[in-house]
Each structure stands twice: as C-alpha cells, then as structure tokens.
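I am writing to request your help with a piece of structural work I have in hand. Thank you for your consideration; the sequence and its tokens are set out here:
=====
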Amino acid sequence: MSAGMDRDREKILDEYRQAKERGKSFYPYAVFKDLVAMAALTVIVLVLALTLGAELDEMADPASTTYNPRPEWYFLFLFQMLKLFPGKLEALAAVGVPLVGVMALLLVPRLDRTISRHPWDRPRWTALGMATLSAVVVLTWYGAQTPMINRAIRTDPKITEGQLLFATFGCGNCHSVFGEGGTVGPNLSDVGLRRDAKWLEEHFKEPREVSPGTVMPKIDMLVEERESLVAYMKSLPDEGRCMSCHSLGGVGR
C-alpha cells in the first residue's frame, strides 16, 4: 500500500513539473483569477460603504480663497509630476504618461514570453518594474514635501476669517491681491509691509478720516471682524516677508 501511495505521489509531482515547464497562458487562467479577486474586493468595498458610510468634505465653494488643493497620498506622484510638465504640457503628465504606463502594463504578457516566473530570469522587465516603482516613490515623497499654497490659514483662524470677510464685503471689487481684483483702490498685495496693524484698524473704522479724499465707504463691522480683516491684511504678502526681496506678479523687489 505504501509503495502504491509513493507511485501516485511521484506521478502527481511529475505531472506538476511538466505543467510548470509548459506554463499556462495569461488568458484565461490569470485573467480569471484577477476577475475573481476584483469582484471579491468590490463586494467588500460596497458592504463597507453601505454599512459604515463614506465621509465627504464640505461642498466645493468656487469663491473660497482659503482652500488648499491637496490630493490623497496615492495621487501625490501625479501631483508632483504636474510640476515637471508646466503650462500646456500638463495634459501630458495628467493623461499621457499614466496612459502609456497602463498600456505598457497590458502589453507585458504579450512581450515577455519567458516561462520562468522568477524575477532574476526576467532581468529587463524586473529592472523596468523597479525603475517605475522607484520613480513613483520618489515623486510621492517630493509631492508630500510640497508646502501648502497658503500655510498661514492653517495656523491662524483669524486670517481665514479675514479672507472670507474680504470676499464677503466685496473688497476685491476695488482692490487687487496678486493681480486679481479691481483697480479702483490701491493694490493690497504688499499692504502688510506698508501699513501696521493699528493704522489698518483705524482705517477700517473711519476710512475717510484716516485717508482724506478716499472713495472707500465706511463698512459697519464687528470688532472681531475688523481684527480678522487686519490679520489678513498683515499676512500679505506672507509671513516670511518674501516680497521684501522677491517679486511676484510685479509686486515686490
């Protein structure tokens, strides 16, 4: 009986070795396994979404001046890659490069006919895969290091409130900040360098007394609102006072 079991075992192992040497085609074997795995994962995600729900941010406000665009961590490599393709080339980074990557991935089973699945037996494709993975990791790291467009609003809530009040009171209809806004009143892009907080507060209280001849109307606002607006004005151009040495949009030195 033992000898019979050994023969059966040897037969099974021999058939396995032969099947392994012949290999199996990507379609339908691997495709079927991938479809089963994706279907199972989809069901799990749907169950979690239906039972636990999905947290949503506030509805997007196109008039907001306080939003810092930042993708999820798994899109940071694309976020960083946009900087390598400025201007009209952005579409190449956002669509072209990912599309080429997906197409190359789909063509790998057709181009690589190596029977062995060991990475060292497929040096070219292993090197290409490692290079791609390394590029994604490096771009993700650099994307994570990118500073916020407006870091001040994350540390001082008064500046956030001041930015909202600037838009609410319609200040941008007469004043411009970094090239955006009206031209009736002075450019406020560097007002934080030119005026101190006390002058700004008095100006907001009685604009025509502090600045004789100005056409700026007096706006009724609470003390807290005035303080927030002053905080926003003092944050211009920025906390580090970069524009005392550098220029942006024609403003600064």
The two ends are 95 Å apart (CA to CA). Residues 24 and 214 are 83 Å apart (CA to CA). The chain has three domains: 8-53, 68-146, 152-252. Residues 239-245, 247-253 have pLDDT under 50 and may be disordered.
